[in-house]
Batch of 2 targets.
Target 1
Amino acid sequence: MTKPQAISVTAPVKENLPKEKFDELEGFINNLETTKGSLIEILHKAQNIFGYLPRDIQLFVARKLGIPGAEVFGVVSFYSYFTTKPRGKHTISVCMGTACFVRGSDKIIERLKEKLGIESNEITEDGLFTLKDVRCIGACGLAPVVMIDDKVYGRVKEEELDDILNSYRDREVQQ
């Protein structure tokens, strides 16, 4: 069984990430019973803390675990859950699978790009939304499907997009 290294790894400053967040991640790693087989769990925690996994965080994790940075990068780049770029507070995923595409998801994503002023895999200027096109959400009977965070919107029509987006904008104002 491998115990986390007790060394202190100072937070790299290239990304200008808060030291407190590195301290939180280091505390999480140090409190694991073993780090063997825990890379994905640690990366999940890191992404929850920072919101994304840029190079500095990947190298921090690699040093803490005593593994090559390339190994960490390989895992981060393999799993679509992980992201190396900041995301908006809400992620909008538009299904581009066959059933959704046939029922107009191409028009839905184009309209969202217009309304948000961004392309796919970009973040809105206010940091509220990230737009993604995905291969399949698995709700083909509800095509076309848009998913925002964990909420699925089925049989979406272009004219409903303003109401959907505004419901998330209104939540921000209320908070």
Target 2
Amino acid sequence: MGSVKDYFSSLGSGISSLIKGMTVTGKEFVTPKITEKYPENRGSHVYPDRFRAILVLKYDAEGRHKCIACGTCERNCPNGTITVETKMVETPDGKKKKKLDRYIYDLGSCTFCQLCVTTCPTNALEFSNDFEQAVFTRSKLVKQLNYLPEVPDPEPTPEEKAAAEAARLAKIEAAKKAAAAKKAAAAAAAAQADGAAPEAKPDTAAEAPAAE
């Protein structure tokens, strides 16, 4: 008799627990939703400015970025997410200059620590809050951040060209004068060394008359 009583007691307890659980579920089922209505609100939703989704290069209205290819971000990245490839170009005034060739960023291995942004000397980087970066293959997570065509440097003015040419000629003239001065100093030092050399004493033994 006791076992039957225990059976119905546990059955009633189970039904009571089920009713309590279904009550909570039914209440939430009819409660108005307050969650984000994504993706319906994609165009109107405001994302926090501090949210870090993907690293980007800052471009101005003319399509230029501030990256000078110094490699600071690449060195400070803790897990090799960033690769900076450079190239050497010749400026209109005839000088050699290192410029950015390709800025490779692997979103799949980024830890979003923002060390690259905080240590950039030219403030050329920032984290965008565009979180929609889901892809089906990991290779698509590797992105080239300098995606816009490179804008050529402005041509120097005639005054700047004349100043650069004058500076180049002055540098050549200064190098010639320095070389001539060095050569003259070396010749003077050699002449002084020759004049200061002691004269050879005559061999008295050879000049003495032979003993008879």
